[in-house]
Design brief:
Number of helices of chain A: 18
Largest sheet of chain A: 5 strands, mixed
Number of strands of chain A: 10
CATH topology of the largest domain in chain A: Rossmann fold
Structural class of chain A: alpha/beta
Helix content of chain A: 40-55%
Radius of gyration of chain A: 24 Å
Shape of chain A: globular
CATH architecture of the largest domain in chain A: 3-Layer(aba) Sandwich
Oligomer: homodimer
Chain lengths: ~475, ~475
């Protein structure tokens, strides 16, 4: 298939939007750099260093996952993803984009799929309670996703529901209620899988959590929803074909996107990157994007080890909803934002506003317009208003929100963030800044080896507090 | 009742956190200004100018709304809020905080309440379709919230579902399936109500959308959920008593909060305001906060008419979830953020992690800890790590997520934003920056009087586009 995604950057340009936009000659002057970055990334790919770029082509692995999902669909009614961050945000994005989302729990099972829920993205006892009050454990399979098996949130939830499932169906039968996604060889979860004999699927060790949506992490849940995985992969592959074959900014949309984001941040101080899809189904996609951006780009050090404290702040907005919440700020506040819309030309369903009060000017003009038309007019009108106010904005368009289009969107942003990290000269693939918090947690929860750390923390927490009101 | 909310600003202070914090003498030097602002706001309140400050005490109006809700609960199974922005974000926050949220649709009716849903915060045809596929219109009452009756999104949805309800139950009977919240005297919706004879409740004309959660806008849905409105109001009143009686920063938490936010933005460039509750139930509260902050503070002009382009960017984060998504950026990225946690000491339900693999160091230490304990340790550990990294952060604590505590939280942020607008010398209550977009929408949808505007827009949209990839 051919890529169907387009990126319109008209309103990013100074020629259209004025001083806060990027001038044509600035784009030209960065051309060489863009070509170098493209070459560097393609060389890295050729050397096998970019595991995630392989995924669009792993059709056989996807077939195996579909097969496993079919077995599960036969035996269970409810598939529950237990994961956090990179272990569930991709699957959540797929669920919201390609199924009726929260409404799916009230609807009959989809063809070839079952009900899919998410838990373990938190350790909130009330959420856990409410979830369990609606789950029939005898008909539920839990998909626990943790590469290491050391992640506090999903592992706490796993240990708890494991006990409940054992109580419900017995020690022996409980095993078939769990499928684990984890490392091939090492880690706590691998040990648990081997010891208990749980079914398991592999998370490739060269693909980090935030780039893992097209591994088993995102694909097994997608298959459990009844989604044809080959279509998701075909979309990602179509985008990849476009990206890898062109180092020309005007042909490679991810490279153009990264270049404009970089220039807008570093030359204009536009360091808040807002993604604003005009489609309720892309709401969770925004949260997937938020992790990808924040963890890949928010870095203390550059590749030379120099302290740089880099990183634009990603914001997930939603059209038309946020017109009545954030647009006042976007139109009138500081010139520190880039807004990217995602526009869906044709929605899966549509309806027309009927005529009701032809004499009331406040509503009569709505009659005869379809909702598909209205939401797209809202997007166009918002882009127009921002442009008139000199606010940079761009629009990614897909013809329809199909599995192929979603695959393209995932892959587009993954490659864009990799390019962007090259511009910033930072490592897109590590996350050293989460360690300090993890160690404090281990200490406070009494994990072995953190006793000294704990003492220091407790002293600090027990200090008399004068700054409280 | 007495206020139970506390605000701990220890980690906002330079004495604790270093150069990126606010020094004690900076706080002292702003003391006079803080007192002036407090006096100005109290004078405005006394003159009747701040409508929303009256709401905590309108106990009789709340009783009437509870009475209306009781009648509806007797006659219907499903209460659907049709609103957008200030017309639904408050009710959504209440629904998520005080009911099982999305799970409530799968659970038996709450005592004295019914199922509550939200639609019309968008004009997404697929979301509308999925919602309707799960709704029994003969048992559903729609609560259409629009002060003017001119708001495109809820009015489109209203016109559409009105037709469906007429088709389902007939022209005459359809009327009892709608309750409208609108202006007392004027506007398109008032005309429709008078003509059709729909039931209606009043949105006070001196309370703007983002300050309206304690009017009929938020309270009728809350009552339909089975929530005791007097408890919500009592919490807001308890916070108001604390606020109005003290101009002392160290006694008035909203004034301290506003002061620190202002100083952090204007003296340290910390202009991204992150609200990060450690409670899944406060997720939607974050979206309510986001509108309050963005629309109240994002302004082009100050009170003198000078162009200032003000406004911190509010971000809704969620703990522990976002530890695996945003914390890398917060710990290592630019020093441009203020993080405020909301901590709930005691959750409504709890569970303990059972012992399962005592020999596996990666999980054994979790055994015996309750989820309530774990989520609060995660909050403390995250605050500690941010503090070690010199990142300003503060913590709002409530003992439990009761209706009273939620009432306090709403009112705390409303007053804080009013104080903050005074510091910035801008008008907290207008939103001129949404007009341009609205006019473009009217033009593109063919509303009378916008014909010229439409021609200009269409010329622009039809220009050949060279900036597309």
């Amino acid at each position: 298939m051919k890529s169907v995604l387009s990126y319109d950057y008209t309103n990013m340009m100074a020629e259209v939007i004025g001083e806060h936009g990027i001038a044509g000659n600035e784009l030209t002057s960065v051309n060489t750099r863009a070509r170098e970055i493209h070459a560097k990334i393609e060389a890295a790919r050729a050397s096998g260093a970019l595991g995630f770029t392989r995924l669009p082509y792993e059709v056989d692995a996807a077939k195996e996952l579909s097969g496993l999902a079919s077995e599960l669909v036969e035996n269970f009614d409810h598939f529950v993803v237990v994961g956090i961050g990179g272990s569930d945000l991709g699957a959540r994005a797929i669920h919201t984009a390609l199924t009726p989302g929260i409404y799916s729990h009230l609807l009959p099972r989809p063809k070839g799929g079952m009900r899919v829920s998410f838990i373990g993205g938190n350790t909130d006892p009330r959420e856990l309670h409410d979830f369990l009050a609606t789950a029939d454990l005898t008909r539920t399979v839990f998909y626990v996703v943790s590469k290491s098996g050391d992640t506090i949130e999903p592992m706490s939830v796993f240990l708890y529901v494991r006990k409940l499932v054992i109580d419900a169906v017995g020690e022996k039968a409980h095993r078939r209620h769990f499928v684990m996604a984890t490392d091939k060889k090492k880690g706590t979860m691998r040990t648990i899988v081997d010891r208990e004999g749980y079914q398991s699927v592999i998370i490739p060790d060269d693909v980090g959590g935030r780039f893992s949506v097209l591994t088993s992490v995102g694909l097994l849940p997608a298959a459990a929803m009844g989604i044809d995985l080959s279509r998701l992969l075909a979309g990602a592959a179509a985008m990849d074909e476009r990206i890898k074959t062109s180092s020309n900014l005007r042909e490679n949309p991810a490279l153009m996107y990264a270049t404009l984001q970089y220039l807008a941040d570093t030359t204009r101080g536009q360091h808040i990157s807002i993604l604003m899809p005009y489609a309720a189904n892309l709401k969770e996609f925004g949260f997937w994007y938020r992790q990808l951006w924040a963890e890949s780009l928010g870095k203390r050090l550059n590749s030379q080890g120099t302290v740089v404290h880099r990183g634009p702040t990603p914001v997930a907005a939603l059209g038309a909803t946020d017109q009545h919440s954030q647009i006042q700020l976007y139109n009138e506040g500081p010139y520190d934002k880039i807004i990217t819309f995602i526009r869906v030309e044709k929605f899966e369903h549509d309806a027309v506003v009927p005529s009701a009060y032809p004499d009331l000017e406040g509503v009569s003009y709505l009659a005869g317009h379809s909702f598909n038309e209205i939401i797209n007019i809202e997007q166009a009108a918002t882009a127009l208003a921002l442009t008139q106010n000199g606010r940079v904005n761009g629009t990614i368009t897909v013809p329809a929100l199909t599995p192929e289009a979603l695959g393209e969107l995932f892959y587009f942003f993954e490659m864009a963030v990799v390019y962007l990290a090259e511009y910033y000269d930072i490592n897109a693939f590590d996350q050293p800044g989460v360690e300090a918090g993890k160690e404090a947690m281990y200490a406070l929860l009494g994990r072995r080896g953190f006793e000294e750390h704990r003492k220091r923390i407790e002293e600090r927490l027990n200090q008399k507090n004068e700054y409280i009101v």
